[in-house]
Structures are given as C-alpha cells and as structure tokens.
Amino acid sequence: ETGVTQSPTHLIKTRGQQVTLRCSSQSGHNTVSWYQQALGQGPQFIFQYYREEENGRGNFPPRFSGLQFPNYSSELNVNALELDDSALYLCASSLEGPYGYTFGSGTRLTVV
Amino acid sequence: ILNVEQSPQSLHVQEGDSTNFTCSFPSSNFYALHWYRWETAKSPEALFVMTLNGDEKKKGRISATLNTKEGYSYLYIKGSQPEDSATYLCASYNNAGNMLTFGGGTRLMVKP
Q1: Inter-chain CB proximity B99 and A56 less than 8 Å
Q2: Would an 8 Å CB–CB cutoff place B40 in contact with chain A?
Q3: CB contact (8 A) between residue B98 and residue A48
Q4: Cβ contact (<8 Å) for A102 and B46?
Q5: Which of A5, B16, B47, B97 would you call most buried, defined as having the most Cβ atoms within 10 angstroms of its Cβ?
Q6: Where are the beta strands (DSSP E) in chain A?
C-alpha cells in the first residue's frame, strides 16, 4: 500500500503571497486532515475533508482553505501569507473516525 | 484539563535506562488516545490507539496505559536504545470535533 506523500518538501514565500500545498492520501483512505506545527509546539488542527466536503475546522482564519479531489488527494491553500504562517504543514489520511491515521512527512513553509 | 499536555518536554537518558512520559487530556467527550513516534525529517509513526479505560498496549519494548476517568496516559520504554531517540507525541480524539488534538511532544535523546 502507498503512504502519504506531500509536496513540495520545502517552500519559501514572501509575505502577502499565496501558496498551495499538496497531499496524496493512502490507498483506501477517504479522509484527509491538515495540521500546522509551529516551532516548539505540537501540531494544530486546521481542517479535515471527507469525501470532498469540509468535515471539521480548527481555529484558523478563512484565508486557510482546502480542497479534496475525487481520488481523495487534497490541497491546502493559504492566501495573504503572514510571517506567522511559517511552520511545518502535515497532512494525514484516514478512514472516517479516530483510527488509522497515516501522516506525510510535511511541507516546511518559510514566509519572509 | 482543557488542552492536551505532555511532560517532560525533553528527556536525556543513557542507553539501557527505562523511561516514561505522561500525556494529560480532557476526559469530557473523550473517544481515543493516539501515541506517535516522530523522527526528524520523517513522518510521525503510529504507535498505539487506545480507547478503553484501563487499556494497556505493548509493541516490543514500548508500552502504554490509559486512564480515561482521570484523563492521562503513560508511555513506557524499557531498556532505551539510541534508535529510540525521537519526539513522542500524544493526541486525543474526541467525538465533538472529528479531529486529533496534539500535545507539545516529549523529545527523547538516548546516549550510547
């Protein structure tokens, strides 16, 4: 079975720009969750997509948006980047519910 | 307890020492407790998912216990090895939000 792949692995953007991060889900999984890990903290939940619909959202502003595609891969879009958006972004795929989360290795975003 | 908290933040032990970490979580709306092992530049690797009060799980030299009534879980590593060096994350899944809430992690360093 394939794992979760995230792209790109590293990215540098300028404040005010927009960014798109990508995540492929593990074969057989229909749910993708996105997390932001700032330096020195644990991962914070951004949102979750289940069968192409947003299925839960954390405390992040609307400039954080997402998509899930029919093959269950997903994108995270961030508009109007701020310096505080610099972080590691993790995605995880799963079946609906609390079990079997498989994480990618993350995208390191630096906003300058 | 409002958030998921882990202690200690970091730990240095000698090869062969046994060690343990604590994860505290809100007991209201609790559904499941996850433990992950995360090596730098890799994906978080699932260790255990526990749901029932009194659950104990074991994987090689690593074991975990769960107390849902008081809202804590312990992770034990017996006879630590240098390859156990990693960050250990716990996360609580509650049935109110379709999401994992992570603690800040315990960074373990095992000296040969």
Answers
A1: yes
A2: no
A3: yes
A4: yes
A5: B47
A6: 5-7, 10-13, 19-24, 31-37, 44-50, 53-57, 64-68, 74-78, 87-94, 102-103, 107-111
